């Protein structure tokens, strides 16, 4: 049969989380960003009750394959995370 196209974003997001996002904290950041919006590191760190320090930067870097940078150094998940469109 033809390649199955995901009917929802959930399936592909679960796969990305499993295959491309390593570690508990990066996965939490990934989950926070599933709203499809732009986020600053400060916002994400605040949401996780963590300081926006070098360690936090490392967690964010772990998501570099699935995030893109915008203006003001904000980041969001790439379109590949939302095959059925952003929420």
Brief account:
By secondary structure, this protein is mainly α. The protein has helices at residues 9-20, 24-32, 41-47, 54-61; strands at 67-69, 75-77.
What would you note in describing this structure?
The chain is mainly α. The protein is built from 4 helices and 2 strands. It has a two-stranded antiparallel sheet with strand order 1-2. A hairpin with a 5-residue loop joins strand 1 and strand 2. The termini are far apart. The model has no long low-confidence stretch (mean pLDDT 93).
Brief descriptors of the model:
87 residues; mainly alpha; globular; 4 helices; two-stranded antiparallel ribbon; 2 strands
Order of helices and strands: HHHHEE
Beta strand count: 2
Which regions have little confidence, pLDDT < 50, spanning 5+ residues? none
Structural class: mainly alpha
Q: Percent of residues in helical segments?
A: 40-55%
Tally of alpha and pi helices: 4
Secondary structure elements and their pairing?
Blueprint: H1 9-20, H2 24-32, H3 41-47, H4 54-61, E1 67-69, E2 75-77
Antiparallel strand pairs: 1-2
């Amino acid at each position: 049969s033809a390649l199955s196209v995901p009917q929802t974003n959930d399936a592909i997001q679960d796969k990305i989380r499993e295959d491309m996002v390593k570690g508990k904290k990066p996965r939490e950041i990934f989950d926070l960003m599933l709203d499809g919006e732009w986020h600053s590191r400060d916002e994400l760190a605040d949401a996780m009750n963590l300081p926006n320090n070098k360690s936090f930067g490392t967690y964010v870097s772990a998501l570099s394959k699935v995030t893109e940078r915008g203006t003001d150094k904000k980041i969001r998940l790439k379109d590949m995370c939302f095959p059925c469109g952003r929420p």
